[in-house]
DNA sequence: GGGTATGATAGTGGAAGTGT
DNA sequence: ACACTTCCACTATCATACCC
């Protein structure tokens, strides 16, 4: 029998999904898994960011197809905003690559929307106890924030610090060092140092290579400004 | 048109400050 | 001690403007 609640007695759990019906369904799952938890809801990435910033969340359930998500960028943004909060990605997409990407980018678990309620409850218990939950056997050891794809770039990405990931995200958006420095309120030389560290960890020779690979890995198609 | 000076930008190396 | 963040000084590259 499953333990009823590994979560703190008054834990806060955010359900971020744009479909009210599915939010209701997820809330039933959460209620069953953690009867004492306070459940918050968001229907857009912006709402989720605001709630995550103001509430000390114990768990976040995130629909990756929600408005504003832009592929996995929303997951990355939330991970950077609340690095200590485990994030479970909820998606109708059950492709192995999607699951691997979500876990690579720091998700604490992946729950397909087609999954049985009991399995979802079990998955949430595993995540809240500090484990990584995945719906299928990906046949390789996996830890939160890491990955098992034999890919230097993705391994490098997992090794980036929070600030380095923020800089990389802005590089992907085509921003110059000067603009990044302004927006992060740091010196341009600091941005350059971060870029150098990013290139070293990602094992690429230029920001252009880093941006191209990052765009591919994040699963987003962007108009690439001149770099 | 070709050479040179200048400015903007990218990238590296090293060092200091801070938190764990 | 170590990792991370930040900054400075420096070099390299590229585009543009100017002069001959």
TrEMBL record:
Gene3D superfamilies: 3.40.50.2300. The modification 4-aspartylphosphate is found at residue 63. Pfam families: GerE, Response_reg. One of its GO terms (biological process) is regulation of DNA-templated transcription. SUPFAM superfamilies: C-terminal effector domain of the bipartite response regulators, CheY-like. Residues 12-128 form the Response regulatory domain. The keyword Plastid does not apply. The keyword Phosphoprotein applies. Residues 153-218 form the HTH luxR-type domain. One of its GO terms (molecular function) is DNA binding. Keywords: DNA-binding, Phosphoprotein. PANTHER family: HTH-TYPE TRANSCRIPTIONAL REGULATOR YHJB-RELATED. This is Two component transcriptional regulator, LuxR family. The lineage of its organism: Bacteria, Pseudomonadati, Pseudomonadota, Alphaproteobacteria, Rhodospirillales.
């Amino acid at each position: 029998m499953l333990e009823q609640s590994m979560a703190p007695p008054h834990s806060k759990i955010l359900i971020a999904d744009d479909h009210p019906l599915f939010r209701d369904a997820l809330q039933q799952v959460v209620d069953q898994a953690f009867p004492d938890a306070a459940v918050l809801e968001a229907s857009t990435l912006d709402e989720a960011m605001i709630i995550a910033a103001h509430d000390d969340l114990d768990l976040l359930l995130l629909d990756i197809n929600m408005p504003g998500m832009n592929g996995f960028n929303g997951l990355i943004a939330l991970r950077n905003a609340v690095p200590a909060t485990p994030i479970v990605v909820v998606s109708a997409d059950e492709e192995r690559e999607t699951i691997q990407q979500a876990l690579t980018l720091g998700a604490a678990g992946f729950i397909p929307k087609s999954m049985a309620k009991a399995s979802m409850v079990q998955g949430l218990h595993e995540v809240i106890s500090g484990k990584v939950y995945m719906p299928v056997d990906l046949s390789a050891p996996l830890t939160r924030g890491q990955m098992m794809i034999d890919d230097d770039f993705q391994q490098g990405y997992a090794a980036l610090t929070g600030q380095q990931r923020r800089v990389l995200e802005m590089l992907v958006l085509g921003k110059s060092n000067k603009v990044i420095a302004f927006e992060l309120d740091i010196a341009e030389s600091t941005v350059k140092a971060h870029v150098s560290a990013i290139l070293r960890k990602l094992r690429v020779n230029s920001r252009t290579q880093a941006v191209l690979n990052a765009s591919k890995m994040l699963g987003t198609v962007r108009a690439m400004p001149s770099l």
